[in-house]
Amino acid sequence: MEPFNYRDGVLYAEEVPVPDIVREHGTPAYIYSRAALTTRYRAYDDALSDFPHLVCYAVKANSNIGVLSALARLGAGFDIVSVGELERVLRAGGEPSRVVFSGVGKQAHEMRRALSVGVRCFNVESEAELVLLNDVAGELGTQAPVSIRVNPDVDAGTHPYISTGLRENKFGIAIDDARRVYREAAAMPHLRLDGVDCHIGSQLTSLAPFMDTLDRVLLLVDQLEEDGISLCHIDMGGGLGVVYDQETPPDAGDYMAALRERLGDRALELILEPGRSIAANAGILVTRVDFLKSTEARDFAIIDAAMNDMLRPALYDAWQAIDPVALRDDVEEKDWDLVGPVCETGDFLGKQRRLRLKAGDLLAVRSAGAYGFVMSSNYNSRNRPPEVLVDGDRVHLVRRRETLEDQMGPEWVLPE
Ligand SMILES: Cc1ncc(COP(=O)(O)O)c(C=O)c1O
Ligand SMILES: N[C@@H](CCCC[NH3+])C(=O)O
Predict the structure, then answer these.
(1) What spacing in Å lies between the alpha carbon of 334 and ligand 2's midpoint?
(2) Is the CB of 40 inside a 6 Å radius of any atom of ligand 1?
(3) Any atom of ligand 1 within 6 Å of the Cβ of 79
(4) Which domains does the chain carry?
(5) Nearest residue CA, atom 1 of ligand 2?
(6) DSSP line for 105-133
(7) Collapsing DSSP states into helix, strand and coil, what is residue 87?
(8) Measured at the alpha carbon of residue 48, what is the angle toward residues 43 and 51, in degrees to the nearest 5?
(9) Whose CA is nearest to atom 12 of ligand 1?
(10) What is the CA radius of gyration of the chain?
(11) Which atom of ligand 1 lies nearest, measured to the CA of 102?
């Protein structure tokens, strides 16, 4: 389903014209579609309906509490990387027993909180973390459920900044060391070895690296079985790509079918941690053209959204489609550089985009539901934009626009 569609030349979010939302909430603003989140979550869940599984949405992709609560109501699990994400999941009504805790640098206080609410599993990334978790669980008189994140040394074929499963990446324990580390962990009294996990990167557009990874992990599972360590789940992480431009990623159903086939009748529950493939195309960022400025070299449209609102183009040179909110044919088409007000040359959301523009026009940056608002900042002391969740013909403000007061506490001025 395509949640953002034109009707009579105007972009709609589900049943609501985008200009109506802008009238109420201003620009820039993130707009999410509940129906799109639901469809994309269910693509995973339904494909595994007769297979033991848990779909843990990766909270880092979009941690808005409205978004999390929409997913929690579908029965989603969650993949978290900090106690902050855990608290958001709890606030949104998520079930702690469906939460997996990932990340290379968990702190003791985060482990304590996660153990006390009863998360499903800790995805441990180093031997030092195993030791700390064993100590913390011991202090609390409990056993921590553990999976070890293995680094399979598989090339995900994605942007180097978002590739995580190569030997030179900081993530996980090298798969060749994993057997030894599991044996060490098995001797720690406050750990319970439940599973194995991996995550090789983000925005993958082919299944081959996932399948190579699964083969390597299954080999490890068999070796552990010989060592008397019997695991109950395998967590394949997230990483399935989406269409930003001309990519042709496999769909979640085909991916799940391929995993199931390879898993055969092994008694292993399958856990997934999809983020982008659930949230990216469920959101847009709406921005207004403030000024048009043509130089000898370029035509610039200065828009009111900037790299602080949407960092992906500046950080990864990422391309995201940018479309007019209202189609017009009364001005000539030009190749515009869409740049924000921040004082950085890297502050652009799109370059050389062929559009018909006038000052005051609204533009929609597509595929902005994942790694959009969550990566925003106050750079240049800009207030972060509001987030709105559309559900049919209803519009819910799920985070208000920041104010300068949110950025400046009076008590922060130094005393005389
Ligand atoms: C451990 C882990 N799980 C899940 C994800 C979510 O990945 P994606 O948004 O590509 O599905 C990430 C981010 O790449 C991650 O690091
Ligand atoms: N922030 C990245 C994805 C990072 C994945 C997190 N492990 C992006 O926008 O594409």
Answers:
(1) 31
(2) no
(3) yes
(4) 4-32+280-410 (2.40.37.10), 103-272 (3.20.20.10)
(5) 371
(6) ---HHHHHHHHHHT-SEEEE-SHHHHHHH
(7) helix
(8) 175
(9) 238
(10) 23
(11) 1
Dist. CA 162 → ligand 2 center (Å): 6
Q: Is the pLDDT of residue 342 over 90?
A: yes
Q: Any idea which ligand is nearest the CA of 200?
A: 1
ipTM of the prediction: 0.98
Least Cα distance to 305 among 255, 364, 263 occurs for: 364
Q: Which of 326, 329, 366, 412 is nearest to 19 (CA)?
A: 326
Counting Cα atoms < 13 Å in the Cβ hemisphere of 142 gives 16
| pLDDT higher than 90, residue 165 | no
Please report how the helices 83-91 and 108-117 are oriented relative to each other, as an axis angle in degrees rounded to 10: 30
Q: What are phi and psi of 37, to 5 degrees?
A: -60, -45
What's residue 162's pLDDT?
A: 63
77 lines ligand 1 (CB under 6 A): no
pLDDT at 51: 95
Residues in the chain: 416
Q: Which residues are annotated as a binding site?
A: 239, 273-276, 312, 316, 344, 371
Kindly report the pTM of this predicted structure.
0.97
User: What average pLDDT does the structure give for the chain?
Assistant: 96
